[in-house]
Amino acid sequence: NLKDSPVEFYMITDKWANPCAELIAYLHDYQELVPPHFLTDVTEQAMKKLQLLNKDGWFATLCFLRLADRVEDSLRERIVDKVKTNIFDLIETRKEIWSNEYCAKPFWYAPSPRSPLYPLLKEHTLPCLANEILTQDEDGNFILNWDAGTGEKEWKSIITMEVLRTLKNYDMILL
Fold first, then answer.
1. How many Cβ atoms are within 10 Å of 34's Cβ, its own excluded?
2. Does 161 lie in the same domain as 99?
3. What is the spatial distance between Cα 55 and Cα 59, in angstroms, rounded to a whole number?
4. Which of 5, 22, 53, 161 could form a disulfide linkage to 63, CB 3.0–4.6 angstroms apart?
5. What are 46-80's pLDDT values in tens digits?
């Protein structure tokens, strides 16, 4: 039995942040096209769900950080503060794991030196980016640390663009 509101239906599950928090972020990007009460309601629901974020939710945490980039300062601070409480339970700090196992890389959480988590992650972000350069494929792609199956070509393209943008943000390449 669905609730009256589709928002409530999607908000009742425990693992909704991927993609819900990120989708709410994109609603903020296009807020002139979204009914104001709807945007307020889904943002409030996201902030309630933020409290459920735990160390098992590294991808969910990235979705929340994308939301943090798009909301007012007070909400951004709440999200970043929550992420800071368990960031070292989320990210992988060992170089030998970054290229070989599916894990959360430090630079994902600090894609630029202006990122709110950069001061906390600087020690791990720069070596991780250097590792990306050292392990780049001959064809120019940055390697995937998971089996993408039939979507490998697409994921390599996505990851390569993300790494290149991040390297540019850190002045580690010139584009």
1. 16
2. yes
3. 10
4. 22
5. 999 998 887 558 889 999 999 999 999 999 999 99
pTM: 0.85
First to last CA, the chain: 53
At which of 58, 90, 122 does a domain end? 90
Residue 170 in 3-state DSSP? Answer: coil
Question: End of a domain among 75, 90, 105?
Answer: 90
pLDDT digits over 81-101, tens only?
A: 999 999 999 999 999 999 889
60 and 7 inside one domain: yes
Q: Using N-to-C axis directions, what is the helix angle for 17-29 and 58-68, rounded to 10°? A: 10
Domain residues for 65? Answer: 1-90
Question: What pLDDT is recorded for position 57?
Answer: 80
Tell me the backbone φ, ψ of residue 23, rounded to 5 degrees.
-65, -40
